[in-house]
Amino acid sequence: MGTKHGRSAAERLTAAVKTYDVRGLVDVDLTDEIIEAVGAAFVDEIDAAGADVVVGHDMRDSSPRFAAAFASGARARGANVVSIGLCSTDESYFASGSMDAAAAMFTASHNPATYNGIKMSRPGAQSLSFDTGLGAIRDRAIAYLESGIPSTEAPGSERSADVLADYARALRTFVPLEQIRPLRIVVDAGNGMGGMTVPAVLGRAAGLDALPVEVIPMYFELDGTFPNHEANPLDPANLVDLKRAVVDSGADAGLAFDGDADRCFVVDDQGEPVSPSAVTAIVAVREIARERSNGSTDTIQVLHNLITSRFVPEIIDEHGAEPVRTRVGHSLIKAQMRETGAIFGGEHSAHYYFRDFWGADNGMLAAMHVLAELGSQPLPLSEFAAEFSPYEQSGEINSTVDNVPETYARIVDAFQGRAEFDEMDGLTATGITPKNEPFWWFNVRPSNTEPLVRLNVEGEDVATMESVRDEVLSLIRG
């Protein structure tokens, strides 16, 4: 097993295996040899010999060869590879769910062009985290890198499949848009996979009927070098072009997708972002109504992570469902979706999870829900979305911190008697406020990958939010 940049292949793979996926620098952390070993290890760990394994990839330059390397390792250990080629991550989940097959998606999501990675799923789009298979796959792959991949008596086959039209048809069935009022929307695909999926789902590229939705495309050309801006809509700098285009074109809304198109951010008719909490609330109300219209009389649960707005659990409760507060993280939420039978889940990071999409996240579905609701009433999105965003949020503020426990201790000491604390995920403080006083809460969480803590604050009004925000920041940075 050779070394590169002073590290062995085992050391490089160890660095690339994260909590929820595999991700690293191309030809530094991840090489064809390493990827092939991971493909073999994946098949062994999930016992997929003789079964189908779906392999798809995004538009990054390294993705096709990495997908081929993975397929080679998977076939060597007896899996039958179903190559779906270029696809979005949620399209990969669709293939995994509809075929009831394990899947591997090659993408580094919103990361720069020099990165790539793998999102792996068990059959039925069940995600893998470090504790539920990724760690074991890493260990098996390291063994193969050291001793070689053993041959099997029955190597697997490989065939190609095109699932885009079926994926688009399924999403249109899930959220019908045929009867809404005509809408004009600007879509910024960021040169990512949304450039392929949006024309199929919202347009006629997959051979489906036209919808009353005019799409004004931005950066639809698939280009893994991201020549226009990073495919990371969470960074406000990457929404500048979209916001301007929405206003200049008089559009009803704007949508921005990340590189693998599993996350979608919404911009209103005034060019202002619609918070993921508001999107979560909008979709939750629609999903609760859909469940009731299907005759369900059971308790309906909707998940929301602890950083979404207080309005999210309020409106879930108002519509007769049970809000369930969760930690942050897509593998955690997907597992909880399955455990609870929740119909929907939303995160502040614009990940949206649907029970009827195998519990997986799908930004396109969330966007379609917003368009369906917007197009079924007369208000502009700026006014309509404001109804789902009545409180003031700080957004996520990062600070470099050397000692997280000491930081927590300073915060608890300063807010003792003024707040109730819990440590479900980081440190959450909820204000003990007299009746008629504005409410507030904040959460401080350490990053999993960097020496940072992330602060989120919400208050009933601007003054309350800013006052709490500034006090907590002074304690964090003091």
Uncertain runs: none
DSSP helix fraction: 25-40%
Please state the structural category: alpha/beta
Count of runs of 4 or more consecutive helical residues: 15
Query: Based on CA inertia axes, which overall geometry fits?
Result: globular
Compact summary:
This protein is of the alpha/beta class and 478 residues long. It has helices at residues 9-16, 32-45, 63-76, 89-99, 134-147, 164-174, 194-201, 240-249, 276-293, 311-318, 330-340, 363-374, 381-386, 404-415, 462-477; strands at 3-4, 7-8, 22-25, 52-57, 80-86, 102-106, 115-122, 126-127, 158-160, 183-188, 213-218, 253-257, 264-267, 273-274, 301-305, 322-326, 344-346, 352-354, 392-393, 397-400, 419-422, 427-431, 440-446, 452-459.
Task: Sum up the structure in keywords.
478 residues, alpha/beta, seven-stranded mixed beta sheet, six-stranded antiparallel beta sheet, 15 helices
